[in-house]
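step: validate -> pass
step: tokenize input -> pass
step: predict -> running
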Amino acid sequence: MLKVLVVEDDFRVAEVHVAFTEQLDGFTVVGTARTVAEGRRLIAETGPDLLLLDRYLPDASGLTLLHDVPVDTIMLTAAGDAETVRAAYALGALNYLVKPFTAEQLADRLRGYARYRATLAAAGPLSQADIDRAVRLLHEGDRTAAPKGHSPVTARLVADALQAATEPRSAAAVAAELGIARATAQRYLASLAESGRATMTLRYGTTGRPEHLYVWLPG
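step: predict -> pass
step: emit ->
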């Protein structure tokens, strides 16, 4: 199991990162930290293989932690400016994902990291071909950024509501349950269907447009 430490000051977002990560085989979250200082302490205590690190933390920049600790790191941050991106990669970040993003986008990065680690775990010296392959595997599944306006927290809530349902759900029903706009629920449900996490069928009434119904796909 690859041990993951989440360093994120917003506890709700941290919970989403944890949920996304623990859906994947081969990963376990060993803790969450809300500050750089707490991150340093938990790194010493838990010995993680990978950090999921935010740029904006209350006591210092997450880049400070990236600079100070020799732990593989994927940046998960709202900071999309070129200076921060260059600094993160210069300090050793293996990947960079701008918020908001989907579970599938984070899963792609984590799976790529697992393949990268497996390639570099080979006994004996690595050839140039081995190194090139490891780097290629690290990034080959990367997907584009989430659509503007998508929130990982809302995405998780909609996914959980659909997964818990015992019958097909409409956008109106999910919206009423979560207290969000119907259009918002529809957007996130459609995204789940597009990513293969749910299926969509049509229910035809006696008049008007057909209603979209969604069902969570297990597995």
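step: describe -> The beta strands are 2-7, 27-33, 50-53, 72-77, 95-98, 169-170, 198-203, 211-216.
step: cleanup -> pass
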